[in-house]
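Hello, quick one for you while I still have it in my head. My current little project is about how a certain protein chain folds up. You're getting the sequence in one-letter code plus the fold written as tokens. Would you mind checking whether the tokens look sensible for this chain? Here's the protein in full, and shout if anything looks odd to you:
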Amino acid sequence: MSRVICACLFAGLVAGAALDAAPARRKQSRKPTDEFRFGVGVQIVSPIGTLNTWHGVKTGFGASILGEMALNNNMGLRARADYNVFGEGTYITDTAKSKANAMTAFADFIYSFSSRDEGFYVFGGFGMVGGKIEHKYPSRTTSFNANGLGYTFGAGYNIDKNMGLEASLVQAAGIVDEAIFSDFNWMQVSFKYRF
């Protein structure tokens, strides 16, 4: 069901971009600015790869804080920190319950197709990912912490200067330990509000 929600929201982003490209909807562009603004976000996170298939964790939720700076009317930089909690699931051995959470700190490059404040945009970034997986057996609990490099990319739609929707993929590149888990990846759909 979470993948259906993600797919529907992503389809909405694509439809919004198509509407935004219509000449009747074009708005006069803002002048390039070095304006810096802060924001917050909430997201639905859906694990993919072994985080879901091996560890069995389920769809969860998260929150983020961010800071954005425009380079010009179409390009910008963003720093953001996310904290995500995945839903409890069943470990592949069927003898343990699994839980996971992740903290990220990313630096993103954003390219807006119409203007910084409204319309469709794409982004990509890299940074640090910290993850924790916990397996709770009837007689004991084991947990694994890992930190490493990660990257993200996605697309979004700014409804106006303050509000936006975003769909992205997060891949952990450096926290691999074959004996414990082989990836720490997820998809997320976010609502952002910038001040």
About this structure: The radius of gyration is 18 Å. The first strand starts at residue 36 and ends at 48.
